[in-house]
Amino acid sequence: AFRWLENIEPAERAIDLRPALSAYCKAVKDRKIAKPTCKSFKEVCSALEDSLIKAKLHFFLFLWQKKSIHF
């Protein structure tokens, strides 16, 4: 039941890194940097294409904060 708590720190870090990751994916798309072949790069770039990713991450953190108040 508490396994989702393990995702709090990565969600916070993803919010912080989002601008840099977007810039990196854009540089790869513009062929300024060699394209990595790993699957995680493709996953990150596809997640960043979601225009609501920042809102989704903030909502996830909001739910965690609301839930932690009741403990």
Give a structural overview:
By secondary structure, the chain is mainly alpha-helical. The protein is 69% helix and 0% strand. The protein contains 3 helices and no strands. It has helices at residues 8-29, 39-48, 53-69. Helix 1 packs across helix 2 (39-48) and helix 1 packs antiparallel against helix 3 (53-69). The model has no long low-confidence stretch (mean pLDDT 87).
Could you describe the largest sheet, including whether it forms a barrel? none
SS field, number of helical segments: 3
Mean pLDDT: 87
Helix percentage range: 55-70%
The shape is elongated
Category by helix and strand content: mainly alpha
Strand content: under 5%
- Uncertain ranges: none
First and last CA, distance: 14 Å
Order of helices and strands: HHH
Rg of Cα set: 15 Å
- Could you give the count of β-strands? 0
Mind sketching the topology for me?
Layout: H1 8-29, H2 39-48, H3 53-69
Give the tags:
mainly alpha; 71 residues
Give a quick precis of the structure.
This protein has 71 residues and is mostly helical. It is built from three helices and no strands.
